[in-house]
Design brief:
Blueprint: H1 3-12, E1 16-21, H2 25-35, E2 41-44, E3 60-61, H3 65-69, H4 73-89, E4 94-103, H5 106-122, E5 132-135, H6 136-142, E6 153-162, H7 164-177, E7 181-183, E8 186-194, E9 197-205, E10 211-221, H8 227-234, E11 242-252, E12 262-265, E13 274-279, E14 282-286, E15 290-291, H9 303-316, E16 328-337, E17 352-356, E18 362-366, H10 372-386, H11 405-418, E19 425-427, E20 430-433, H12 434-443, H13 449-456, H14 459-462, H15 464-481, H16 486-500
Parallel strand pairs: 1-2, 1-10, 2-7, 4-12, 10-18
Antiparallel strand pairs: 3-6, 4-6, 5-6, 8-9, 9-10, 11-14, 11-15, 11-16, 12-13, 13-14, 17-18, 19-20
Bound molecules: flavin-adenine dinucleotide (FAD).
Length: 506
């Protein structure tokens, strides 16, 4: 997957059956869906694939135990089904994760045991493992640093886990292999219309500055929290759809939370769920739910959000994690679908919403990562319907393998055999190699130091200080691969260092 080739393909194509705006989970899912139905497909992403919310999730492929407590059975059932499909279709990017809910009284024991057994039952044949009750001793064996005070026992249940931005890259590569044209750093800036119907999209290449226009039979707006900005490009008096809500995560060393099991606190002081989840040899703590007015691509954590997570984690465990122990803090904005003005964002629906405008623009938003495939299917179904493209095949993504790990490993081994220096680590404490960097540039369209350190490997999210230390070596290798001058490399290092400061807690 090479950006220059993709750009040339976008310029050459007379008209696309489907143009998708937004390269997060939803848009990439739609690109794969459309391409595998035989549509000529173009996806444009204004930054890098997954740079928005889709790289900033809690990394859970889940039905959403919380939504069960809210009585939203339909949403949970659908998400559990999608969880099952994703774990089967992307086995190298997903895994089964055991969770333990600690209980402190007999009522909690009955309530959560029954609830979580029902949760597992709902997944039917796609169950990831049986839910069962643990006594106090067993709970401590599963969660060695749990605070034993007043602890009665725990409930063990299973959900899925994944690497979100790696899945974005895998979706992009798979869609490209099926014939889709995908362009990162390409912004949709306007629509071309004939008699009120969208017939094309104006684009701006964010790297080369070039303006281009593509013709489109159907257009899908899959822009997450930017949904309303794109709707404004279509019609400036539309109803606002998205109510953004911020969630932060703190990443800490597993010394504070050893073991393989995750901790799930079903009800924090503000009624939210709090997780401590082992991930990539670190532990992710999160999250929060803070309504925000401003939509930024790099949202910042609030002091009270950080304190909230630290206070709760330290209360439920015997650990004392301080701000200085946090190795990275990452923040995302949920594209929640707007309800009435007074509803708290924690209560807003996690279901997705699909809107077709009079211009035939199909907008899909809300939902969650876990349900991206279903969202994509719904979006493409509607796009093909309104644009009267009846000759396209039905959706096949339920059983479509995603990613090409075997091919990637094979290719990297060949390069290393020819050039053993490529096996060297980029940072002594982390396993990422130079070969992975070269692979990301040549095959996954990594265009900047940030693309690689934040999203192709996750070093910025795992250990922001280590990522800063690695940036100069990454910039040098990338400059050679991308035929860029030394000045590009030093500018990249400066830009990356500036960004990384947001991921470091002073
Ligand atoms: C804190 C937090 C934790 C979460 N945890 C989980 C979890 O554990 N499991 C789960 O299933 N879900 C989780 N979610 C939800 C999930 O991450 C989101 O629902 C999902 O990532 C949304 O994907 P998207 O593609 O709709 O939006 P995005 O990922 O934001 O993608 C939209 C893209 O559109 C691009 N764009 C915008 N305007 C334009 C334009 N004009 N031209 C070109 N491109 C444009 C943006 O740059 C962006 O990359 C979480 C969300 C948050 C915030």
């Amino acid at each position: 997957m090479n950006r220059s080739t993709m750009l040339a393909a976008a310029l050459q194509q007379q008209e696309f059956d489907v143009v998708i705006i937004g390269g997060g989970a939803t848009g990439l899912g739609a690109a794969l869906d459309a391409a595998t139905r035989g549509c000529s497909t173009l996806l444009v992403e204004q930054f890098d694939f997954g740079k928005g919310t889709s790289s900033r999730s809690t990394k859970l492929v889940h039905g959403g135990v919380r939504y069960l407590a809210q009585g939203n059975i339909k949403l949970v059932r659908e998400a559990l089904r999608e969880r099952g499909f994703l774990l089967k279709n992307a086995p190298t990017l997903t895994s089964t994760q055991p969770f333990v809910v600690p209980v402190f009284g007999w009522w909690e024991k009955i309530y959560y045991t029954l609830g979580l057994m029902f949760y597992d039952l709902m997944s039917g044949k796609l169950s990831l493992g049986k839910t069962h009750y643990l006594n106090k001793k067993q709970t401590i064996q599963h969660l060695p640093t749990i605070n034993p005070r007043k602890l009665k026992g725990g409930i063990l249940y299973y959900d899925g886990q994944f690497n979100d931005s790696a899945l974005c890259a895998a979706l992009a590569v798979t869609a490209a292999a099926k014939g889709a044209v995908l362009l990162n750093y390409t912004k949709a800036t306007g629509f071309i219309k004939e008699k009120g119907i969208i017939t094309g999209v104006q684009l701006e290449d964010q790297l080369g500055g070039r303006q281009l226009t593509v013709k489109a039979k159907a257009v899908i707006n899959a822009t997450g929290v930017f949904t309303d900005a794109v709707l404004n490009m279509d019609e400036d008096s539309h109803d606002v759809i998205v109510a953004p809500s911020q969630g932060i995560h703190l990443v800490i060393d597993p010394v504070f939370f050893p073991g393989k099991d995750a901790l799930m606190i079903p009800k924090t002081d503000d009624g939210r769920v709090l997780f401590a989840v082992p991930w990539q040899n670190k532990v992710v703590l999160g999250t929060t739910d803070t309504p925000v007015d401003t939509i930024e691509i790099e949202p910042r954590p609030l002091g009270e959000e950080i304190e909230f997570i630290l206070e709760h984690f330290n209360r439920y465990t015997s650990a004392t994690v301080r701000r200085s122990d946090v190795q990275s803090v990452f923040v995302g904005l949920r594209p929640l679908v707007r309800a009435n003005e007074n509803a708290s964002t924690a209560l807003l629906s996690r279901d997705h919403t699909l809107v077709v405008a009079p211009s035939r623009l199909v907008t899909i938003t809300g939902g969650k990562w876990t349900t991206y495939r279903k969202m994509a299917e719904d979006a493409v179904n509607n796009a093909l319907f309104v644009s009267k493209q009846k000759d396209k095949s039905p959706c096949i993504t339920r059983e479509l393998p995603i990613g090409n790990d075997a091919e990637k490993q094979c290719m990297m081994q060949e390069w290393i055999a020819a050039q053993p220096a490529l096996a060297a680590r980029l940072h002594p404490a982390y396993p990422f190699t130079r070969a992975e960097l070269v692979y990301a540039v040549r095959n996954e369209m990594a265009m900047t130091v940030e693309d690689f350190l934040a999203r192709r490997i996750r070093l910025l999210f795992l250990d922001a200080r280590a990522a800063v230390a690695t940036a100069p070596a990454v910039a040098e290798i990338m400059a050679a691969e991308l035929h860029q001058p030394d000045s590009w490399a030093s500018e990249q290092v400066n830009l990356f260092n500036e960004l990384a400061q947001q991921y470091i807690l002073a």
